[in-house]
Structures are given as C-alpha cells and as structure tokens.
Amino acid sequence: MQQFKTSTSKVSRLEKDKMIESGEGLQITSEDLETLRREMNILHTILNSLTEGVVVSDQDGKFVFLNPAAERIMGIGSPDITPNEWTTTYGFYRIDKVTPYPSEELPWTRSMRGEQVLDEVIYIRNPRQPGGLWLSASSRPLSDEMGAIDGGVVILREITERQFREEAEKLARAVEQTEDSVVISNTQGIIEYINPAFEKTTGFSREEAVGKTPRILKSGFHDDAFYKDLWGKLLNGESFRGTVLNKKKNGELYWAEQTISPINDKDENITNFVSVLKDITELKVKHEQDIQLEIARKIQQEFYPKDLSVPGFDIAGVSYPADKTGGDYFDYITTPDGYLWIVVGDVGGHGIGAAVVMAETRAYVRSYIKSMTTPGEVLTKVNQELTSNDEGERFVTMILAQIDTRHLTLRYANAGHVPGYLLSNSGEVISEMGYRDQPLGVLRDYEYSSSDHVALYPGYISAFLTDGITEAMNFDNVQFGRQKALEIIQQHRQFSSPDIIDRMYQTVQAFSENQPQEDDITLVVCKLTDPPPL
Known about the structure:
Blueprint (H helix, E strand, L loop, with lengths): L12 H10 L7 H20 L3 E6 L4 E4 L1 H7 L11 H5 L1 E2 L13 H6 L4 E10 L2 E15 L5 E11 L1 H17 L3 E6 L4 E4 L1 H7 L3 H4 L14 H12 L4 E8 L5 E12 L5 E10 L1 H23 L9 E8 L7 E7 L4 E9 L3 H18 L6 H13 L8 E9 L4 E7 L4 E4 L5 E5 L20 E2 L5 E5 L1 H4 L11 H10 L5 H15 L9 E8 L6
Antiparallel strand pairs: 1-2, 1-6, 3-4, 4-5, 5-6, 7-8, 7-11, 9-10, 10-11, 12-21, 13-14, 14-15, 15-16, 16-19, 17-18, 17-20, 20-21
Helix pairs in contact: 10-11, 11-12
C-alpha cells in the first residue's frame, strides 16, 4: 500500500478531507481504519447500553436504526412500512388509551418536517406489548452537510402509570389555572365542565353553567346562519375558530377569540367538544380606536394650511403631535380686504376628541374672519359656538393675530394662550402678545378684546407657539421655558421662517434628551422681508 507523501501525524483532518474529496495523494491506512472501528464500537456500545430507546429514521420515514431499548419498548423491530402505518403497526394511542395517535402528529413525522418535540406523552400497545406502556417521546430533525433535512431521531423514555398521572394532574392544574376560559360539553351542547377563568370572565358560577348550554352566553349579535355554520363544522369533525361577541351574566358584552374542537373515541366517534375562549375586548377596542385615530390623523393633516405666498412676507408653520392626533391647531388665512390672519390654538386633551374640537374650531375661525373686523370679535363669536349649551366642556386656548399687509400693522387677541412675540430686525422684543382674556369654551357671553395696532418694518418677526415647547422637560424636570424659546428666535432671526422652526424643534428635542413628547409642539413664524408692493 502506498504511504502518504507526508506523515499522517502532520496532516490535519481538514487537509485529509480536502485530499479525499479531490482524490489526490491520500489513502486510508490500516491505522486510520482501526481508529474508526474503535470509535464505531464505542458509539454502538453507548447506544446499546442506554435505557432510553433511540430510533433513527431516514428522509422516507424508514427506521434505519433501533437500539435494544427501543426494540424492547416498541415491541416490534423495524418492518418495511410507511409512516402512515406507524400508528396501526406499533399501536400508538392518545393518553385516553383508546384514541389512535394520528401518524402525522407523531414525533417521528414531525421531526421529518423540521420540528423539534419535547416530552410528548404516548401510550403504546400492540401484540408484543399487550400490557401497554406509557412513553415520553422527544425528537429532532437530522440534517445533511447542506442543511437539508434527511431524517429524524427520536428518544423514547418509559414512564410509569404514576408518572403519567402526575403529568395528567399537572395538565389539569394548568387548565384550572389558565387565564383563558375552558368549556367541555357533550354532543348535545350540555356543559359538563368549566374552569375558574370562565367563572371570572363571564360571572357564571360552575353550578350555574354546568348542565346548561353555551346559549347562556348568547349576545344576539350573531344570526342563526352563524350558529348553523358553527355546528355544521363541529358535527363534521372539524374545528371552529373565530371571534364571537358573548354576553356576561350581568349583561355586559365582551369579544372572545374562540376555538372549539371535537373529542373522538377510539372508533372516531365524537364524544365531547372542548372550547377555549380568550377575552380580547380590550385588544379589539384598542384596535378599533387605532383605526379611528389613523383616520382622524389623516383628516387632521388635511386641515393644516398649505404653503402660503404673501408678497413681502415669509410665513411657515408646523405641528408635531404627541399622539397620532393632536390638540394643537394652527392656520393662516388671507382675506380679500388685505388682511393676513394667523391663528394658533391648543385644545384641552389629546386623541380623537381633541381632534374633533380642533376641526370645529378651525371651521368657526375661518367662517367668522370673513365677516368680523377685529380679532376680539372673531374670538367672541367662536367662544359662543364652542360653549353652546355645554359650558366648560370644550376648553381651547388661542392667539389670533391680524396683519394688515397694506398698512403694515399687527394686532391680536389672546384667549389664555402662551404669549407670542414680535421682534425687530435687531432681535428686540417689540411686543409680547400675552394673555388678555380667558380661554375659549368657558363662559358663553364673554367679550374678547383686541390689542392696539403695532407698526411692522422689514426684518420684523412675529412668532406664535404652544406650551408643548415652553413646558418640554429634561430628565431633571426642568422646563424649556419661554425665555429659551425667545432666545432661539433671536439667535436665528436671520434665518428663513422654516429654518427658524426647524432649529426650535431640534433644540427642544435635544433639551428633552429625546424623551417621548408629553404634549403637542406647534410653532408659526412670520417675517416681513420687504415692504409689499402697493
């Protein structure tokens, strides 16, 4: 026999493998064969000495190896049969000892599908194992070097009747303690068992439910066709899965994700039905609220003003809601008489309710600026609409500014809102547009006032914001504050209106150390760039 060109002690396993694959310069020595035989003998000795049964199947389901323990446990060796014949040949049963174990659900079959099974309890009884045995079976798939499944291995452990009873008791405790409702009824629908979760969820005690039918939960929401289809499936041996609206003992309705499955005897006759119900009312309500909020958000986005071009003015605004829908509101509108109206408001609360009030407020403001001449008059009329017959129910703060684009003046009305600022081109505060009156929606007959006219010059900046900016907090619970907001505008007064807004938002975010927003953030900036043409 030709020897290796290099001493075998100096050739790594990887190098040998490569040489074998290429067929060049390498032959197995007698020493290597002897080592391989010793390893195989050790492996066989270990497998044959195990008290657990070991069964290996190939990709076609043929048993290619059974150790002595497996042959003893199963009672039959490895006849040439298909996986579909495993249950009838070996006598595999469910834990009731009478229901044949479906071949497609056996650990052997499942391992061939790539599943891993742990401690599946099986009862086995056949002509060579007439007394029957309880087994705990675990399995896992076997893969080739490319990762493709080419078989499976199953480990069988014999367990005693006592161990099985302990497992059954554990299972019973699990059913008793699960948070999902479990109901077992006979083929006529008469309830034979309910677990404590059913009592807790529905309010019906065990004494009140057992002996009755599930009709005690009937809400009236589902029609006869629904129940006819449900029972048709069950009596045909199929399972039912669906969402059902049930009624509790106190009349309260609740949504349940329900699964009902038939239980068969050894002759495949249906003996009972088991139903598992999970209360999903909160999840369903939240899901529906999320849908409504998303719709409201899309509608609300349409309310925000589009880019507005006014000769001599650079105006921009943005709102960052804390929720999907926010309570902040801003708008800018021009009227044929040469006025530019700017409005920023804050509706009490968040969510869809605040969004609805915001939409109503916007509609009222846009309607009344067409007929009113001063900001105070507009707010007086809007307040009357918001209070209606429900005083104090719809709370809105607002600042409304009226800019005369022909004579370059500004006046405003403030209904309990965060002050706005009018700055000169040098950054000096010309006017702090602070509180003048109470919020909208408090007193129906309240009269709102307007400020005096303030002259505007090129470079003047008017800024309107909400308390989402001034009350933003860092981890030390320190507020951002009005002064810091004012300083940001002053420091960036040479920037365009959109850039000032962007710088404000980025600074607030950095100050808050990127914590989730507690409130909506809104800012509108208007700069007089050049005197407009007359």
